[in-house]
């Protein structure tokens, strides 16, 4: 590229300011690799762009419609999904059979569970992203193993890739077969030597000619691979495969290294080795390795045909947005709703020192986190799904919800296990959270390991893709025309400078005025939270520019700093989604505790991330000046206080519309032989008996019962006319349910 600049026609600003800066940037800015460029160009910018702007347009967010289920989708959830859940005994699946029952597999195939993303013209259900998520979420509250089995064919895999990139011939043949369950798909990407660094996969194919299926001299490729962690791999009939394709004999052209390519291979193809099963922490969904050595396949087995050779990485990254934003967030929210419902009930039923444990302040603290995180996670899930259903492809936001919802699941489940105590660590049919606890690391690891997602992807991709000027500046530097390149860079840099100065003054002004002059429509508390989030957005935009200016390309390697910047962006998004969710649900007064808890939590976390960034920014004078601008009067935001936590916890242990809204969409069996069914019925009995128990204990205050315990108390209560016979019956029924619910599974010494 010619870096010389025209002299006579160059304006003074370009000659003396942007021109020299342009030359400097081109020298010091590292070249963007093809895989990095494809990752950045995947998807589009949505609400993340507003959060990078320093002045989010809240009215724009308010006007977006909330996703709703169609009548057909609701009927599917109320019918086939409900029935499928009733067919699953998770203990038998995970401990005895190590697989779903044969009739359950058949039911999934016959009822289109594997075809939610496939259009009706191919025999699929063609559900919305919201419906897809609701189905997975409900099943996950019955069995994580079953949920994973359902979600994988509808996520990143052959079905999605065929829809987006397949040839018409491939679509017409495979999609109807996938829709009917005649084909079970899996997708093989991860290799032992290439996990997160998918661009380094060692699996390869060599273009060649060979006789195949009765035809002479077929143009194809010999592919060798070794994959692992492939979900549905052990039972798959159709294998999607990622590998690097080479053409050393130049049968296709002059280029030898053709790049990452994707192909579809029937698993009964000679040379395909499906291998055995992995054991993913006793969750027992089908997962295992597969491999092949010099397996010949025609070029028309490439997804999209020869035109898509070398485009595999772009295809994967573009499809990852949908899958990453739907499946694992649904699983995570399902765990949150299940914990809120079941552990809330358990905390009301279980008694210690004559008091429900849910009323102890230590338990309240954990319950508040369970309820608050569940509300926040569900809000982020719903808002993101609405964007997908409107045709958005928010790649940065998909990374946010994948990371923070799976991490939220980890926090919720840990708190739930702590509340259960010994009952939580003894596995068996009665243990409602044990298998979910084991499933947490699976969600944390797949579709982008969380450490990588937080430290490299959320901000690393977001800073370039969502910032209003950085991507324009990089594109300008890549323009081969020197005059156009400088003109584009000049406009972008000038705008960037104005943007930086504006956010600097905006951050300082909002900080010293406590954001009261931010113009936002609405009433308290929502309006006040929007004002504070605007202040944090301006501070985030300012610190993004300061970090990039002081560190340049080194910021990519400063993963702790980029991780903190990603945290700020993430908590701004989570708070935005929660505020919208509250308004979409009609601003119910009963839910004020949730929205207050979540908003205060997110603002506090975002503030702390900014503080951590300022503490560790290498350029200390700049960090000191930035601190004066962003926190001139110190850190203002506090975490939710104990009083607010008490309100949130109380919702989880008390029947109410708010509790039902929080836990809507989970599977609740209508029987008392199932653990959750026992909890539901026991919870009702304890609530109904509460008034009678209070009468009894208050009336006999100071009385010490004999060895008969409760029966002696009831006898005395009846004799002294403190309670009625109906009261005594309610108390006995509640005690019987309580005694049954707190039991823990036991087994023979040899487990037979």
What does the model show?
By secondary structure, this protein is of the alpha+beta class. Helix content is 58%, strand content 9%. It has helices at 12-28, 34-41, 47-53, 58-63, 71-87, 90-97, 102-110, 129-140, 144-151, 158-165, 168-180, 312-349, 361-389, 395-420, 422-425, 434-445, 450-466, 470-478, 482-512, 526-551, 559-584, 592-616, 620-630, 642-652, 657-662, 675-699, 710-719, 725-741; strands spanning 185-188, 204-212, 215-231, 238-246, 257-266, 272-273, 287-298, 351-352, 355-356. Strands 1, 2, 3, 4, 5, 6 and 7 form a seven-stranded mixed beta sheet that branches. It has a two-stranded antiparallel sheet with strand order 8-9. A hairpin with a 2-residue loop joins β2 and β3. α13 packs across α22, α17 packs across α21 and α20 (526-551) packs antiparallel against α21. It is flat and about 100 Å long. The model is unreliable at 1-9 (pLDDT under 50).
Secondary structure layout:
Layout: H1 12-28, H2 34-41, H3 47-53, H4 58-63, H5 71-87, H6 90-97, H7 102-110, H8 129-140, H9 144-151, H10 158-165, H11 168-180, E1 185-188, E2 204-212, E3 215-231, E4 238-246, E5 257-266, E6 272-273, E7 287-298, H12 312-349, E8 351-352, E9 355-356, H13 361-389, H14 395-420, H15 422-425, H16 434-445, H17 450-466, H18 470-478, H19 482-512, H20 526-551, H21 559-584, H22 592-616, H23 620-630, H24 642-652, H25 657-662, H26 675-699, H27 710-719, H28 725-741
Parallel strand pairs: 1-4, 2-4
Antiparallel strand pairs: 2-3, 3-7, 4-5, 6-7, 8-9
Helix pairs in contact: 1-19, 3-17, 5-8, 8-9, 8-12, 12-13, 12-14, 12-26, 13-14, 13-21, 13-22, 13-24, 14-16, 14-17, 14-21, 17-21, 18-19, 19-20, 20-21, 20-22, 21-22, 22-23, 22-24, 26-28
């Amino acid at each position: 590229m010619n870096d010389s600049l025209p002299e006579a026609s160059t304006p003074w600003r370009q000659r003396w300011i942007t021109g020299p800066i342009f030359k400097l940037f081109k020298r010091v800015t590292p070249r963007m690799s093809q895989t990095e460029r494809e990752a950045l160009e995947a998807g589009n910018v949505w609400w993340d762009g507003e959060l990078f702007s320093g002045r989010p347009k809240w009215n724009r967010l308010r006007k977006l419609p909330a996703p709703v289920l169609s009548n057909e989708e609701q009927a599917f959830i109320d019918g086939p999904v409900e029935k499928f859940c009733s067919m699953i005994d998770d203990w038998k699946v995970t401990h005895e059979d190590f697989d779903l029952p044969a009739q359950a597999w058949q039911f999934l195939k016959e009822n289109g569970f594997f075809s939610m993303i496939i259009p009706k013209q191919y025999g699929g259900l063609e559900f919305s992203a919201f419906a897809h998520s609701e189905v997975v979420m409900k099943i996950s509250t019955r069995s994580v193993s079953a949920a994973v089995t359902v979600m994988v064919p509808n996520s990143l895999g052959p079905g999605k890739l065929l829809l987006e990139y397949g040839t018409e011939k491939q679509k017409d043949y495979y999609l109807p077969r996938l829709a009917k369950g005649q084909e079970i798909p899996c997708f093989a990407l991860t290799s032992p030597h290439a996990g997160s660094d998918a661009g380094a996969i060692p699996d390869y194919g060599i273009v060649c000619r060979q006789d195949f299926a009765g035809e002479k001299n077929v143009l194809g490729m010999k592919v060798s691979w070794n994959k692992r962690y492939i979900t549905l791999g052990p039972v798959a009939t159709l294998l999607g495969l990622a590998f690097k394709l080479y053409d050393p004999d130049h049968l296709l052209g002059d280029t030898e290294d053709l790049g990452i390519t994707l192909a579809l291979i029937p698993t009964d193809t000679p040379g395909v080795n499906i291998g055995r099963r992995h054991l993913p922490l006793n969750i027992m969904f089908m997962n295992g390795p597969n491999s092949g050595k010099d397996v010949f396949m025609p070029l028309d087995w490439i997804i999209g045909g020869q035109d898509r050779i070398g485009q595999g990485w772009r295809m994967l990254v573009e499809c990852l947005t949908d899958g990453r934003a739907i499946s694992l967030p649904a699983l995570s929210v399902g765990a949150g709703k299940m914990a809120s419902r079941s552990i809330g009930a358990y905390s009301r039923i279980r008694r210690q020192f004559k008091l429900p444990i849910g009323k102890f302040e230590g338990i309240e603290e954990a319950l508040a986190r369970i309820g608050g995180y569940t509300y926040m996670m569900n809000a982020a899930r719903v808002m993101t799904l609405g964007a997908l259903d409107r045709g958005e492809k928010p790649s940065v936001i998909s990374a946010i919800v994948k990371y923070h919802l799976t991490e939220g699941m980890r926090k919720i489940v840990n708190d739930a296990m702590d509340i259960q105590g010994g009952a939580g660590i003894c596995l068996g049919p009665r243990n409602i959270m044990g298998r979910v606890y084991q499933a947490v690391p699976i969600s944390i690891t797949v579709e982008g390991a969380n450490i990588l997602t937080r430290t490299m992807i959320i901000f690393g991709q977001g800073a370039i893709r969502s910032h209003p000027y950085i991507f324009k500046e990089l594109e300008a530097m890549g323009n081969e025309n020197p005059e156009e390149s400088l003109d584009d860079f000049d406009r972008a840099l000038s705008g960037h400078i104005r943007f930086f100065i504006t956010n600097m003054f905006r951050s300082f002004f909002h900080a010293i005025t406590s954001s009261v002059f931010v113009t936002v429509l609405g009433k308290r508390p929502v309006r006040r939270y929007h004002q504070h989030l605007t202040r944090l957005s301006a501070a985030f935009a300012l610190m993004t520019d300061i970090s990039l200016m002081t560190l340049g390309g080194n910021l990519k390697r400063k993963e702790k700093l980029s991780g903190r910047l990603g945290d700020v962006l993430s908590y701004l998004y989570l708070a935005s989604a929660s505020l919208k969710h509250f308004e979409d649900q009609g601003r119910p007064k009963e839910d004020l505790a949730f929205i207050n808890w979540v908003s205060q939590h997110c603002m506090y976390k975002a503030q702390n991330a900014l503080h951590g960034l300022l503490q560790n920014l290498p350029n200390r004078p700049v960090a000191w000046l930035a601190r004066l601008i962003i926190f001139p009067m110190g850190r203002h935001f506090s975490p939710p206080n104990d009083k607010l936590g008490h309100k949130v916890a109380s919702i989880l242990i008390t029947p109410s519309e708010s509790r039902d809204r929080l836990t809507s969409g989970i599977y609740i069996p209508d029987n008392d032989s199932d653990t959750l069914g026992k909890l539901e019925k026991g919870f009702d009995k304890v609530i109904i008996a509460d008034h009678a128990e209070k009468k009894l204990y208050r009336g006999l205050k100071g009385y010490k019962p004999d060895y008969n315990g409760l029966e002696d108390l009831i006898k005395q209560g009846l004799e002294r006319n403190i309670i009625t016979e109906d009261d005594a019956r309610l108390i006995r029924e509640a005690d019987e349910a309580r005694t049954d619910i707190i039991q823990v599974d036991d087994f023979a010494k040899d487990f037979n």
